[in-house]
Design a protein that fits this description.
The protein is mainly β. Helix content is 11%, strand content 43%. Strands 1-2-5-6 form a four-stranded antiparallel β-sheet, with no helix packed on it. Strand 9 and strand 10 form a beta hairpin. The longest helix is centred in the N-terminal third of the chain and has 13 residues. It is globular, with a radius of gyration of 30 Å. The mean pLDDT is 87.
């Protein structure tokens, strides 16, 4: 019996040990080639204004034909932003595409040269005007460097742009 126990122990100790291999895959982070895009988006909102219901639609999209913007590290495609205002029956009251050039007179040279048109956002109706917030500045999403602007569209379709003095 001792001999049999010794034989079993000897057989077990002679078994080949399985080795476990750990394979690690290393993923390379590939920096995007060429200019970056800030992100296209569309916002549509129904509002009451001058006795009727209107739809305000704002679309932002990168435009490769415009001069590129830069955050100092990366280049970005600048944006074109279209603002459309539709009457309740679907007819168009106002339609215009804005670029950074539309805001040149209200933005200093640094922001105009390297910045981008970041956004236009509907804020509120104010009497016979529709008020929008607009901004031109550093195209990096993590940056808070921009020039705040106010864009107003009158009931006659006239556009006025001013720097926003109210920092709320």
């Amino acid at each position: 019996m001792a001999l049999m126990l010794l034989t079993v122990m000897l057989c077990l100790s002679c078994k080949e040990e399985k080795k476990v291999r750990t394979v690690r895959k290393v993923q390379k982070v590939v920096a995007p080639k060429g200019p970056r895009v800030m992100g296209d988006n569309t916002v549509s909102r129904k509002i009451g204004w001058v006795g009727g219901i209107y739809t305000v639609e704002v679309k932002r999209r990168a435009d490769k034909s415009l001069e590129k913007a830069s955050d100092g590290t990366h280049d970005y495609y600048d944006n074109k932003i279209s603002v459309r205002i539709l009457r309740q029956n679907g007819s168009e009251f106002f339609s215009r595409e804005f670029t950074k050039a539309d805001f040149k007179a209200k933005v200093d040279d640094q922001y105009y040269k390297s910045g981008a048109l970041l956004g236009i956002v509907f804020v509120r109706p104010e009497g016979t005007d529709l008020v929008f917030a607009a901004s031109v500045g550093n195209p990096d999403k993590s940056s808070d460097e921009y020039v705040p602007l106010v864009l107003k569209i009158s009931k006659l379709g006239t556009v006025t742009i001013t720097q926003d003095e109210d920092l709320e």
